[in-house]
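just leaving the lab so this will be short. below you get a single protein, a line of residues and a line of whole numbers that encode the local backbone shape. id like you to explain what the token line says about the fold, in plain words if possible. thanks a lot i owe you, the record is right below:

…
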Amino acid sequence: MHTLVRQGVGVVVREAVDGDWQVAGRICYEAFATLADEHGFPHDFPTVEAASQPIRWLINHPRIHSVVAELDGRVVGSNFLDERGVISAVGPISVDPSVQDQHVGRLLMDAVLERAHARRAPGVRLLQIAYHNRSLSLYAKLGMEVRGSFAAMHGTPIRQSIPGYEVRPATVDDEYACNSLCLRIHGHTRDGELHEAIETGDARVVERLGRITGYTTKINYFAHSVAETNDDMRALICEARDFGTPGFLVPLANNDLFRWCLDRGLRVFFVLNMMTIGLYQEPEGAYMPSVGY
């Protein structure tokens, strides 16, 4: 049974179901591809399938709230609210290019922000592609503030070890130390994502002098990392087998880490802005966000 979330002129926003993933995935690919082509950037997703599989995963995840917009009975867009942690993350949001300028994006944003408000989430965040002026303006009108900019770094994996920094798979016994580190750096944990990454075998920790000094849920666009120092973060990056496309996100304010990536042959895919509503603390340490935040 579909639950009506919000209704606009000719547009209905409802909760997504598994049967929506194929059309929503196609729209996601076309929306981002059209936007990239207009601005002369490479595509976020190389194929429709590459966009559709993450959309299917999001729709079926029990702790991610998924909505689609319908226009005259057909799906024309989707949006998501990641509720796995204290802070909620929005996106990816996509709208069929054929129905632009009909306020579909605004309705999709209203739906997830109302959901976050109803759940009393202390903060909501997203990362917005910097060259997309319209979305930047929309999110600002909705009350979101820009907190920083991030380069999506891609290229050939470095694949080397740094002496004194041991990188290994994370285990459930590491969760307390990892969550404590995230709390110290961000002021909150991301325990839901961390626990899932440990279960799937994607999470890694770095140990220095017998202590966990950093962790990552995977070095790519969809994962986050925190560490005490840039050297700890470098060790995690160096051990990554693959960065995927469009890579991993480096804060531009961290000039040392950004230049280090460039010096090792990595290149900027595009730049994103982090935008927030509600609770926000400037990070105190090295970190890299996911595409959510």
